Amino acid sequence: MKRRIILIAALSAVLPTGCGVGSTGPVPAGAPASGLQADSGAHYAHLYFVGPYGVQAVSRERDAPVTPQQALDLLRKGPDKAERARGLITEVPPLQGRLTARATDGAVDVYLPVPVANMTGGGLGLSQIICTAANAEVPGAEQPSAVDVRVHETGYATEWTVRCNTAGTVVPLPGR
After folding, report:
1. β-pair type (54-62, 43-51)
2. Which of 13, 95, 123, 165 is the most exposed, having the fewest neighbouring CB atoms within 10 Å of its CB?
3. Which residues contact 123 (CB under 8 A, 6 or more apart)?
4. Pure H helices in the chain
């Protein structure tokens, strides 16, 4: 019993001062944080190519914001020399007709000149197209992963809607 009383008395004496936070005000600690780059005003086209680990993005500096149509036109030209040296290729097959994109508020309509079933290269070429369109300049879109990409196939009356998530994976949006 005597031990408990001594322990409680000792804790009561230590607890009010035990947190270690003093009553001082602000203390100068040196120069402000640095190392972050100022906004350079540069614009980038984010194109998606296929590498050893799947679909991955590359950034190419441009003079102005890149529309979805401009991004798809760059995509169809394929990876440049430096990108090919890194093992990147394109799975977008040669298409008879124009691959067209139109941006609206928070969405892009992509018009394929052929049905998806007739595209060679598996689904990676289609993923390249969708993610490249979603990552271009889309009015009203805060994040590329929130851009609805409506895909219109030649020969089909209805479109289907997908998004490109932050990992570069195409995700269907059921019911849209």
Report:
1. antiparallel
2. 13
3. 170
4. 2-14, 68-76, 81-85, 124-134
Token pair 């590329």: residue = 144
Residue 156 is predicted with a pLDDT of 92
pLDDT at residue 23, as a whole number: 72
**What is the side-by-side strand order in the sheet with 148-153?**
100-104, 107-112, 148-153, 160-164, 170-172
Supply 132's token pair: 């490249």
Q: Which residue has the tokens 């602000």?
A: 26
Minimum mean pLDDT range among 13-17, 45-49, 55-59: 13-17
Torsions phi, psi for 173 (to 5 deg): -115, 95
Q: Is 15's pLDDT higher than 80?
A: no
Backbone φ and ψ of 96, nearest 5°: -80, 110
pTM: 0.76
CA distance 173 to 47: 22
